[in-house]
Amino acid sequence: MLLDIKLLWRDWRGGQLGLIVWSLVLAVAVVTAVSLLADRVERGLNEQISAFLAADMAVRSGIEIAPLYKSQADDAGLQTANTATFVSMLFSSNPDSEANHLAAIKAVESTYPLRGELELVDSFEDTTIELSQSGPPVGEVWVEPRLLTILDIKVGDTLEVGYAEFTISKLIANEPDRGGGFSSAAARVMMNYADLAKTELIRPGSRVNYRLLLAGDTAAVDQYKTWFAELDSGDSQLQSHVRLQTAEEEEEQLGSALQRGRSFLLLSGTIGVLLAGLAMALASHRYANRLIDQVALMKAWGQSARRIRQSQFVRLSVLTLIATTLGLFFGWLAHWFLLEVAKEFFGADLPLPSMRPWLVSGATGIVCVLGFALPALWHLPAIEPLRVLRRDLPDSLMSQGMRLSIGVVALLLLTFWYSGSLLIAALFLGCLFALFAVSGLFALQFLRLVQTMGNWRGSYVRLGLANLWRRRGQTMVQLIGFSTTLLLLLVVTGLRTSLISEWQAQLPEDTPTHFVFNVADQDLEQVKSTLDENGVLHNTWYPMVRGRIVGINGEALTRERLAQSDGLAREINFTQTAELPVENVLTAGTWWGEDFDPAISQISMEQDVAQEIGVGLGDNLQISVGGIEFSAQLTSIRTVNWQSMTPNFYLIFTPGSLDKFSPNWLSGVLDPVVKAQESQAPNDSTTVVQKEAAFVTSMVKQFPTAVVLQLGDIIERIRSVIDKVTRGLEMILLLVLACGALVLFAAIAVSFDERLRENAILRTLGSSQKLVFGALAVEFATLGLIAGLIASVGAEIVLYFMQTRVFEMEPGLHPSLWLLGMGSGVLLIGALGLLRSRPIISVPPLQSLRQLN
Amino acid sequence: MSQVNVESRPATAPAAVQTEPVLQVKNVSKIVPTGDIQLTILDNVSLEINQGQSIAIIGPSGAGKSTLLGLMAGLDTPTSGSISLGSHEITAMDEEGRARVRAELVGFVFQTFQLLSSLTALENVALPLELSGHKGAAAKAKEYLEQVGLGARLSHYPKQLSGGEQQRVAIARAFACEPKILFADEPTGNLDQTTGGAVSDLLFDLNDKNGTTLILVTHEQRLAERCSRIVTIDDGRIVD
């Protein structure tokens, strides 16, 4: 065994193992990085779920929860706590500051939290965390530390929430039910439930999430669940607005989402594994070829086939162990970078990973060796000893087709394991190979083209291009590997840098700059005049009411059926209007004219929702708003342009239908000053932040219940999320690109002897070093150019689909991506190729020839 | 059946040591199929070689010299006939058995040197010793490299050595294992006359010193004449 390790060390020193080891290290590192990240995020979220409710379960509703639910809980002996969350605009009480912030207000009863604890600190500098099992006292608010920075205020200051004033007494470091773990853009302000009324922020139709938290022993909890389920199957009107949340249910939902996320990440890592596997297979074949003489010699010296297999097993095992350990280490390092991105979404402290990612990654290393390296080496012990005398004997190594099949099976196994589904694995690999095939076809055409071009160029160009064509098998492998990786990188880069800006630039001139909503009926006229005074343009105001569809043609709509439509699974906003909103197009039925019958409510429904819940013209829909039901007839179906950045609604009613529900008002408004600033610097995120419209302050101070959102801020938030996600993906793809570089190195290594001989002969015949260098430069630069070109074409196609299907915008070309694709292809492949071929140029021809003999 | 002609060598050649035969080839034929035709490479060859003898097998290209060498060394199996190495009838053994016999008795020197390019001169010589579990392989390898005059080139890689030096390393490697029988396949075939001369001097010196039985295949009359016996093969038969 020691001797085998010694032999391994000598092979390594001789440079025969480098590529195999680094391919394995990279493959394992890619998988380790992504699986560690996925695991930690998953564990983090799961941990948060178990305390997510700050209770054992919660009754949840968009309207105030009826007393029945609490009294039933009291009867069952459960503890209860009411909470209400909503957003509201807050202003700095600091006279020197004009800052405002759309904060997430949460009013809690003093019994809150029923499970878990609030983590509080006294000030910014304070590091001692105080645990609390009750919410803020009356008259005080506890806030998230960042609110102080945003509003330029401090602990002890007064904070105005709606029409009431509060003292900031503590800072919230953490709360047990932070809403699924995603840190929201709005900072938290927590107040006592008893203070809620004083703020006067809750008006009919206000968007509030109510929860009745419940906790107790298992029997009581189960009793309540049974009671709730019975109510569910009954005919209660109230019940259509409430839902019982349990930890198990949330875990189940999150579990499947996380499984999908983990699969996606690992599958993107699979491309890296595939490329590294390809490099490993090429390098192993070369290594096996080098070992043939050694094995024949060893057998001539009397070593048995069994002993040789044993020796190879030890060598391969040690190599796997070392490379996999290195891969795990580098993957662990890389996952910290990815974690920085993840932290933006999942909070600062993610729990330590479980054993699973280490096992998955370690097993990936083993499967890679079994699938890509071992087949090349498998038949070595069968080499005949007679080869020491007769080198013309067949080497009996495994055929290329057989090795390819084993490699594909290994990949299928890995993808199956990563995704947990044979179908996904097969589909994924199928798509990937289809992509390879298409890039391969392109590559072949380009190669043909450049080969003909070489005929009328200078001698080293001709030589370089001829080399590409002559070794087209290898060239294709490199092209496919690089173009696929560059393609993915370009798509991600394009998504990050261009798409949002392009979409933003295509928004019509009259796209609103702000949305104003939650305007109470009695404030509407005053709000309008305030806007006029500030020179802000506003046009259509929509009354808004929250409710849901509860039945079709008198038959109750089941939760299952509602769940088929994303738009209807929750409470949604209804409006009523006499005119069809702009960018809405009727696809069936007729729009109500001026002379509709006000006694009969009519509905116009968005086309996709209508299809999803299966309703058509003439159907009668039962609607519930705040527990009050009414019927309306579906008389038209329309399409909506969701990208228009104007108020859009799934359900529109005939004017008057919603009057009795005290709607509040919504409109998109345009501040010409902000518009001018935005059009000057549409892509500069720093100026967006400073573009605070003058009207916002005066208006919201006057009407505390109103909420103003700046469109630029929303777009900026979308851009920032996309930016972070794509940066994370880019990091994974850079690792994948490194695997692509290994394929290049392996391909150069395979043809190395041949190149060395050719160039030695060329040099011996009097060709200059410059010619040899020039030919190599042309060869690799052209390879890079073609890979970049294929990648750019591919990326443009993917972006075209994203532009037309996802963003629903006018498609356009991205010349900068083409430049980036081809430029980086030429530079990267050119530089790496030349670097790796340096010995071919620098070794004197005589030495090369002797080396080969 | 071809007769083995044991010719007395001139006084310059070392005298044959008359002991028990260390190698016996009896009625050996080697026939290989090439397409539809059965090609007879060796035809009913018999040969007996005693311990300590040096035998040159000569003949034109394609006569079957190397095939005979391979069969005698137990690297290949004949179509018919029997071969005994020492007390072992290797033709009755499987590959594993032949491997054991090779490990025990046989050493090789090749025309193409067959040095492993990733190993230094010292490591190349030490490798077969290490494989056979020899303690102090490096010291012994060093000793033999010094004997072939390469004491200063221990850590050189094959590509840093001239052809002659490479073959000297190969000779040191072959003798370091102290084989009973050394098979040399055109040992000077890749070297110029002077270098070849020096290499063959070394080969015979070490052979004498170690009492090894030397069986070499060569085209070179001068080299052949240094052996105690010359066996000429033509068209698969021993003709002289």
Describe the structure.
The complex is a heterodimer of chains A (853) and B (240). Chain A contains 25 helices and 23 strands. Chain A is α+β, with helices and mostly antiparallel strands. In chain A, a hairpin with an 8-residue loop joins β4 and β5. Chain A is elongated. About 1% of the residues of chain A have low confidence. The longest helix of chain B is centred in the last third of the chain and has 18 residues. Chain B has one domain: P-loop containing nucleotide triphosphate hydrolases (Rossmann fold). In chain B, α3 packs across α4 and α3 packs parallel to α5. At the A-B interface, α1, α7 and α25 of A face α1, α2 and α3 of B.
Short structural summary:
Chain A is an alpha+beta fold. Helices cover about 55% and strands about 15% of the residues of chain A. In chain A, the strands form two sheets. In chain A, strands 1, 2, 3, 4, 5, 6, 7, 8, 9, 10 and 11 form an eleven-stranded mixed β-sheet that branches. In chain A, strands 14-16-21-18-20-19 form a six-stranded mixed barrel.
**Total DSSP helices of chain B:** 7
Approximate strand percentage of chain B: 25-35%
Task: Please tell me the CATH architecture of chain B by its name.
Answer: 3-Layer(aba) Sandwich
| N-end to C-end Cα span of chain B | 12 Å
Q: Which homologous superfamily in CATH is the superfamily of chain B? A: P-loop containing nucleotide triphosphate hydrolases
Low-confidence stretches of chain B: 1-17
Total beta-strand segments of chain A? 23
* Subunit arrangement of the protein: heterodimer
Distance between the termini of chain A: 32 Å
Major beta sheet of chain B, specifics? 6 strands, mixed
Rounded to an integer in angstroms, the radius of gyration calculated over CA atoms of chain B is 18 Å
Strand order of the largest sheet of chain B: 6-7-8-3-9-10
The CATH class of chain B, by name, is Alpha Beta
User: What's the helical proportion of residues of chain B?
Assistant: 25-40%
Return the average pLDDT of chain B rounded to an integer. Answer: 85
CATH topology of chain B: Rossmann fold
What's the number of extended β-strand segments of chain B?
A: 10
Strand content of chain A: 15-25%
Number of helices of chain A: 25
Q: Name the overall outline of chain A.
A: elongated
Helix content of chain A: 55-70%
